[in-house]
Design brief:
heterodimer; A: about 400 residues; mainly beta; Porin; 3 helices; 20 strands; about 5% helix; B: about 450 residues; alpha+beta; Immunoglobulin-like; 2 domains; four-stranded antiparallel sheet; 12 helices; elongated
Chain lengths: ~400, ~450
């Protein structure tokens, strides 16, 4: 590994750690797959065609084709807002607008003509939602936050002129911060904050059937078990309940899902790349979140997550003759809800989504800048059983704006 | 060269990892846990104020510990859940239609209280609901062993009375040993509700899961049915006890509003008259002359039912023995010739011997339940008399009391008396001769008479 590569990797780690510890690191939604400016603009349908260091996340098998040393820094600004309309009638309840910035830093370097290494520090799973403290679903959620930071070293090997494979290790630092209302007669709330590390791995392959014209990709990211341990602060309004609800230790367990992705890139013209990805996300790992307290009655959130899929289509136009270095991009996403309507709750008011992506990039010399915008339209989602929250309909809309700056040295 | 630039990449990685390890874990803070007046009927044994009407069977009118989930077995020797002495004592309690007049009231707390902050009538309000009104003639204390506030009536509770005791908590109430507020319990919070806890569900299977009280109980119960059953139990206590017996109304009239009550409990005192026997107080036999003994009785007595047993001459419910003489084999002297009558003016049964009791001799006095009050109800024993006549030991091998509420020291003293009386009560001649048995004795005491005019 070159000295420059090592410095780039270290810088990525330190900068991201500093960014995440210096401010509330919150995210909207649970899987935030779209973490680079370039990829967002193509609906993140890039597993078969990713020429940026963020390939560490999307498909590290691409790294051996980047050449030299590359590093990128950027992030995604997310703003979202949800509302709830009770089935029984009455006024809608709105969440606070959530504004989050998710940094992502990547670096890669070719250490032989066949082997490349890469490193990423990024956040791809997160929940961040805050409802009014006195709303009707307060016992299900007032505030729910799950933050993750993944450190992902990876190695890619070109096993054939047209075929590369990669493997990586994921170390996931995660923090949860839940605030739930206590039953009406008790009043007040309980806040549980806890952190943990979880570990996983990832595998990837890329087959350039017709290099530059037709690529196929397959990636797998393992599930990551997160066993949180922290403290709970009970704040009952009725003081008679305070002695039996002392502040105490608490634990929670969440398993991040496996993600399997297949992708294809076709280039019908030299200046147009069309890409298509399909993610299969095994959200069945997200079936039950036990929250156990030392002495207080335990709780359980039961989202009963189901395996689901996401379809992504993207396009990248270039104009080599008139505006060399310029890319215009667009894409579309259809994302299936992971939570059945019977288990839908205000902590994660998931729904089927349709996303529209747009963006552009421009590179000159060693440097390149990419900008991507994603409009996420959550289709109305009904909560039907009252099991995990009030019965009614959730509506959410989110905007993502991703910016990435990349530097490359041959 | 700056210090940062000399740091090795490994040190940098370690520093970054250390930062990450604690990154973003919010500090949720910590609040002190307040001291509470406890009322937990689900604990084993229940941690609740004593005595309580909750163990008085509304059908029979008698104390019934099975209502608290702790039934007393018929054969005390064949069970291990209780000490044999406790079992026998509880069997006796279950014959009463209220608690003994000498029963101290107690309310458990989660931490030591400051008894100096107890102001009777203000933050500890005791009201006799059947006519006694506000009661302030009590001794308040704190029992460290049981972590309980204690209230002892120096002259006993009134026969047939029903008492409510309310402890004021929160900002204007009693304080704990650290000077902090004392709060109530979840059970008390539920019992203080104005609306039906069951949300008008007809039975436990039909409880709305969003019923507020059910939501509270469901969090700590093993399952929904257990929570629903507990809900109906509490609702019965609330309606028949606290609402039906007007506990909160009684307290409000005495100046203690419901919202300031940390714990409230009530209990009845039995209606039967009782010969007094409390060795640590004045409630012991009085010897005004060397041939006289006066035994106080709380409650009225039908004088016609009071007469002395005279060996080989007449039977009677008052049996007097010279235990020293009897122990020496002198049966004649062992049953001194006495007469007995009820002296209404002093509320005592007077024993008059034809000759002075021999100096230094231990005299045993026994009453049977053939002595009645004017309404025909038999006298009942006081707890000390019962303890002295049990067949089971009052202390265990380690010297600890085997009966709850009796201190180790008291148990040791009583055990000496019990052992001294046991040979007499077990003697096959005693019962046929005198008519007195462990089951029908309402007074049993042995002492060396000391004249106190």
């Amino acid at each position: 590994m070159t000295k420059t590569t090592a410095r780039a990797l270290l810088s990525a780690l330190v900068l991201t750690a500093g960014a995440l510890s210096a401010r509330p690191c919150r995210a909207s939604g649970f899987l935030i797959y779209d973490i680079s400016g370039q990829a967002i603009a193509r609906a993140s349908a890039v597993t078969a065609d990713d020429d940026e260091p963020a390939a560490v996340w999307f498909n590290p098998a691409n790294l051996v084709y980047l050449g030299g040393v590359s590093a990128s820094a950027g992030g995604v600004f997310v703003t979202s807002k949800s509302s709830f309309s009770p089935s029984a009638g009455g006024a809608d309840t709105n969440t606070e607008r959530g504004n989050f910035f998710l940094p992502a830093i990547f670096a890669s370097g070719l250490i032989t003509d066949r082997v490349a290494v890469g490193m990423g520090a990024y956040s791809t799973f997160g929940i961040g939602i805050t409802w009014p403290a006195d709303w009707e679903g307060r016992e299900s959620a007032i505030h729910a936050s799950l933050e993750t930071l993944t450190l992902n070293p990876t190695v890619a090997v070109r096993v054939h002129r047209q075929i590369s494979v990669a493997a990586g290790f994921d170390a996931v630092r995660s923090v949860v911060d839940f605030t739930n209302g206590l039953p009406t007669l008790i009043g007040g709330d309980v806040r549980l904050a806890a952190g943990t590390w979880g570990y996983g791995f990832n595998l990837a392959g890329l087959y350039k059937v017709y290099p530059g014209r037709l690529h196929l990709a397959l990636t797998y990211r393992s599930r990551v078990k997160l066993d949180f341990s922290g403290r709970a602060n009970f704040s009952p309004t009725n003081p008679d309940f305070a002695p039996v609800l002392p502040d105490q230790g608490g634990t929670a367990a969440i398993t991040l899902p496996d993600i399997i992705t297949v992708g294809v890139m076709g280039r019908p013209r030299a200046d147009l790349a069309l890409t298509f990805d399909a993610n299969l996300v095994l959200w069945s790992t997200y079936d039950r979140i036990p929250i156990d307290f030392q002495t207080a009655p335990d709780l359980a959130i039961v989202p009963n997550g189901r395996n689901t899929f996401t379809l992504r289509g993207g396009a990248d136009w270039t104009f080599p003759a008139r505006w060399p270095g310029l890319h215009l991009r667009g894409g579309l996403i259809y994302d299936r809800s992971a939570i059945p309507s019977t288990n839908l709750g205000p902590g994660l008011p998931d729904s089927d989504r349709i996303d529209l992506a747009l963006g552009a990039g421009y590179g000159r010399g060693h440097f390149r800048g990419d900008l991507g915008y994603l409009l996420v339209v959550f289709l109305p989602a009904d909560s039907t059983s009252g099991q995990e929250g009030p019965v009614g309909t959730y509506n959410t809309i989110a905007h993502l704006l991703g910016v990435t700056l990349t530097a490359s040295w041959p | 060269m700056t210090r940062a630039s000399t740091r090795s990449p490994i040190a940098g990685v370690l520093a970054a990892l250390a930062t990450l390890a604690t990154a973003c874990t919010p500090d949720v803070g910590a609040d002190p846990t307040p001291t509470a007046m406890q009322f937990d009927l689900t604990a084993t044994p229940p941690r609740a104020p004593q005595p309580t009407f909750l163990v008085v069977n509304p059908t029979t009118g008698l104390i019934d510990f099975s209502l608290a989930g702790t039934p007393i077995p018929d054969d005390c020797a064949a069970q291990t859940a209780l000490t044999e002495a406790q079992c026998q004592f509880d069997q006796w309690l279950q014959t009463l239609n209220g608690f003994p007049t000498v029963t101290p009231a107690s309310a458990p707390a989660s931490a030591p209280l400051d008894p100096a902050t107890v102001m009777l009538g203000q933050n500890v309000v005791v009201v006799g609901a059947k006519g006694s009104g506000l009661v302030t003639d009590l001794v308040a204390g704190f029992d460290d062993a049981s972590t309980s506030l204690t209230l002892t009536p120096p002259r006993g509770w009134t026969l047939g009375e029903f008492y409510w005791i309310g402890v004021r908590g929160y900002a204007n109430g009693i304080r704990d040993a650290a000077g902090r507020d004392v709060v109530g319990s979840p059970t008390m919070a539920l019992l203080k509700q104005d609306m039906p806890l069951t949300c008008d569900a007809p039975d436990p299977t039909a409880v709305d899961p969003h019923c507020p009280a059910f939501e509270v109980l469901a969090q700590g119960a093993p399952d929904a049915m257990a929570a629903a059953a507990q809900l109906f139990q509490l609702e019965a206590i609330r309606t028949t006890g606290y609402v039906g017996l007007h506990g909160f109304d009684v307290m409000a009239q005495a100046g203690l509003p419901k919202e300031e009550i940390a714990v409230l409990w009530g209990f009845p005192i039995h209606t039967n008259s009782v010969p007094l026997l409390v060795p640590d107080t004045a409630a012991v036999p009085h010897v005004p002359a060397d041939n006289q003994i006066l035994i106080g009785v709380q409650g009225p007595v039908d004088p016609a039912t009071v007469s002395a047993f005279v060996v080989r001459e007449k039977s009677g419910p008052v049996v007097v023995m010279d235990l020293t003489a009897a122990g020496a084999g002198d049966l004649e002297a062992g049953f001194p010739r006495v007469g007995a009558s009820y002296v209404a003016s002093v509320g005592a049964i007077a024993i008059q011997a034809s000759a002075p009791f021999p100096s230094g001799h231990t005299i045993g006095v026994f009453f049977t339940n053939a002595i009645h009050s004017p309404d025909g109800a038999p006298l009942v024993a006081s707890p000390i008399s019962v303890l002295l006549t049990l067949t089971a030991p009052l202390v265990d091998d380690a010297g600890h009391s085997t009966v709850s509420g009796v201190t180790d020291a008291s148990a040791a003293a009583l055990e000496a008396g019990r052992k001294a009386l046991a040979p007499l009560l077990d003697n096959p001649i005693f019962a046929p001769l005198t008519g007195g048995t462990r089951a029908n004795l309402v007074y049993a005491y042995a002492f060396v008479p000391m004249v106190q005019p």
